[in-house]
Design goal:
The structure is a homodimer. Chain A is an alpha/beta fold. Chain A folds into two domains: 165 residues, Alpha/beta knot (3-Layer(aba) Sandwich); 60 residues, Helicase, Ruva Protein, domain 3, CATH 1.10.8.590. A seven-stranded parallel sheet of chain A has the order 3-2-1-6-4-7-5. The N and C termini of chain A lie far apart (62 Å). The interface between A and B is large, with 63 and 63 residues.
C-alpha cells in the first residue's frame, strides 16, 4: 500500500525542507517523491544534512514542470490546505484520509498523490481545484502554518498507521511475555504481607482501617507477574528476618 | 487539557531542533516546554528561525539539570522510545496514548510530561525507567530514527486530535476522584525503598540484578495515589524501626 502513495511538493524554496520531507517519508516507509517547479536546488549540503540518511530519495526524485504532469498517473490526488477556500471542496481530516487509503490503494494501478504547496503561500486555488479532495491538518487558529516537513510527517504518519492497521494487527500491545501470577500466588502474598505488617507494628487487625483493602487494590490494579510476586515475597522474608520475627 | 501537557527534551544538541519543536508545539496548541541539561544554547539565530514565529516558547522555556526536577510535579510521565529495552515496560502507540489523555488530564492538578531524548542516542535506560510508560512512534524498521521536531510533531498532533475529540463530546463521568501521587512523591518512595532493602540485606547495589528497575516498573504501572504512597512509606518506616535501622 505505501508504495502506491506519492508525495508531491510544489514550488518548494528551501532545500532543507526537501531533505526534511525525504527523512519523514523514509521514516514512515514512503519512497515516491515528486517535485513540481522547485524554486531551489534539490541536492545541497542542507538538503542532504536534513535528509539524515534518506538522501537516496533525493537522488531518485522526479522533477516536473506542472502539477498535471506529476499526478498524471494518479487515481486520487489530495491537496493539503490550510483552510477551506472560497469554493468549498470535499475536506478530509488526516484521519479520515487514512481511513480511506486502504480501499483507495487496493485496485490494480491505484496511485495516490498527496500534494503540498509553497512554504509561504501553500497551494493556489487552481492547484487545489485539480485535487479530488483536500486534507486539513488541525492547527492552532492563531498559528496555523506548519513547517512543510512537519506537514508531510503528520500525513505520512497517518498513512503508516492506516497501513499497519491493514497488515493484520500484530503485537502492537506487545510487552506482556511474562507470566502473570495466579490468584493463589497473589493471595499467599497478601497473607504474608498482613502477618509481616502485624509483626512490625504497622497493622492492628483490631483496627484495620481498610489498610489491607487499600493494599489489595493497589497491587491487583498492577496485575503482578509471577516474578514480581516472588520479589515482593522475598522482601517480606528479608523484613521478617531483619526484624527478628519468627520464621514462617 | 492541552495546557496540562509538557514537552521535556533531554540533552538536545541542536538549537534548530529546539526551534522546530517550539513551532510544532505552538501549531498544535501546546505551550509548556522544558529542557533538561541541553547541550547547546537555546536562543540562537537557528532556533529562532526554525521556531518561525513561535519563539515566545523559547523565551518561556524552563531549563533543568535533571529529569526528576523537570517532571517533579507530573502525574504521568511518558518517555519516547525507539524500541523495547531489556526490561519491557508498558508500551503505548501514539494513538493509545492519545486515547488515554483526556482521562489523564482531567483530575485537578494533573500534569503530563512527554519526554524526548538526545538526537543521537535517545533516552537512557535510567531515564526510561523513571517514566510510567513508553510511547513508540511506528517507523520503518530500516530507518527508525525520527528527527526530534518530527517526533514531537507526531505526538503533539495526536494530543490535539484527542483534545478536538473531547471538545464536542460532553465530559464523560469523572474517572477517579482520588489524587494521584506526583513524580517527586513516587521518587522519594523509591529512594526510601532502596535504602530499606539495602539495610535489610535484600538488595546489594553492587549486584543490582535489575531489582529496582523491576520494582519501579511494578509500582509505576499501578499509577499510585498519594494515599497509597503514604501507606507504602509508612510500611518502610515501620520496617526500619523493627529492623533497628537508623531513623531517616
Amino acid at each position: 500500500m505505501l508504495e502506491r502513495i506519492r508525495i508531491v511538493l510544489i514550488g518548494t524554496s528551501h532545500p532543507g525542507n526537501i531533505g526534511g520531507v525525504a527523512r519523514a517519508m523514509h521514516n514512515m516507509g514512503l519512497a515516491d517523491l515528486a517535485l513540481v517547479a522547485p524554486r531551489c536546488e534539490v541536492l545541497t549540503q542542507d538538503s542532504i544534512s536534513r535528509a539524515s540518511g534518506a538522501d537516496h530519495l533525493l537522488h531518485q526524485v522526479r522533477v516536473h514542470t506542472t502539477l498535471e504532469e506529476a499526478v498524471a498517473d494518479c487515481t486520487l490526488a489530495v491537496g493539503a490546505s490550510a483552510r477551506s477556500r472560497t469554493l468549498p471542496w470535499p475536506m478530509l481530516s488526516p484521519r479520515e484520509l487514512a481511513d480511506r487509503l486502504p480501499a483507495e490503494c487496493k485496485p490494480e494501478g491505484a496511485r495516490i498523490a498527496l500534494v503540498f504547496g509553497r512554504e509561504d503561500s501553500g497551494l493556489t486555488n487552481a492547484e487545489l481545484q485539480r485535487c479530488h479532495a483536500h486534507v486539513h491538518i488541525p492547527t492552532n487558529a492563531d498559528f496555523s502554518s506548519l513547517n512543510l516537513a512537519a506537514a508531510v510527517q503528520v500525513l505520512a504518519y497517518e498513512c503508516r498507521m492506516a497501513w499497519l492497521g491493514q497488515v493484520d494487527t500484530p503485537p502492537a500491545a506487545a510487552v506482556d511475555e511474562e507470566e502473570l501470577a495466579t490468584h493463589a500466588e497473589i493471595e499467599h502474598y497478601f497473607e504474608h504481607l498482613e502477618r509481616t505488617l502485624i509483626d512490625i507494628d504497622f497493622h492492628d487487625p483490631a483496627q484495620p482501617r481498610q489498610l489491607m483493602a487499600r493494599l489489595r487494590r493497589l497491587y491487583l490494579r498492577a496485575r503482578p507477574e509471577r516474578m514480581e510476586i516472588n520479589i515482593l515475597r522475598g522482601i517480606l522474608s528479608a523484613t521478617d528476618k531483619a526484624a527478628g520475627n519468627p520464621r514462617r
